[in-house]
Structure of Transposase IS200-like domain-containing protein:
Amino acid sequence: MPAKNIIKTYSPNSFYHVYNRGTDKRLVFLDHQDFLTLLSYIKLYLTPSKKLLRQIQRFKPTSKFTRISALIKAKNNNYANKIEVHAYTLMPNHYHLLIKQKGTYDMAAFIRTIFTCYAYYFNARYKRSGRLFQDNYRAKLIKADRYFSHLAKYIHLNSQGLQAKDYPNYRAWRSWEDYPYSSCQYYLSKTNQSFWLTKNLLNSYLSTTEKHKQFLSENKPAQFEMIKDSILE
């Protein structure tokens, strides 16, 4: 029997909980730079094409070719009008994304693009070869709006069990509320918002920072029971 949610249901204009982990459960983020690199790829491919073109045009002929090449590639393979990222948490050996795709296969193309870029970076930096992530990412179609806020909560609370002292190469944090590699911090107004994070839908359910904090702090098993088929096992 295939692992849960590897066989995906592709549907246009739909929300998905997307997740994957390192091959053999290995760490896929070894330090702060690794996290920032993956986030930079997400930002790059969600930057509108017109903005990327302006950046390309500002480069001088003597500029580094690798940066110009990356901008051109992102401009020609752009997801700004195809993908919305509503929540995320990057963990030491896995990741969670809550995204909406516009076209039927936009999610598949976006995930392939972002994590192929990251795997190339990681393997080059650490002088390794082979797969970094498990063969197939998992994605669960979210069929009911009432599940959306609870899945975002599950994703944002994923870092609860982590202790900063165990990861000295990461940026320090005090609690899951300010874990630096999660969109939770943006919803709790602890840092400036990234333009590529779409907040309007979750904010329509939880309109203030105080409501977000209260919702995240509630310990209601029934909330997770209703989304048990959509979370990582």
The chain is about 40% helix and 10% strand. The chain has one domain: 14-230. Residues 14-230 form a domain with the Alpha-Beta Plaits fold (CATH 3.30.70.1290). The longest strand covers residues 14-21.
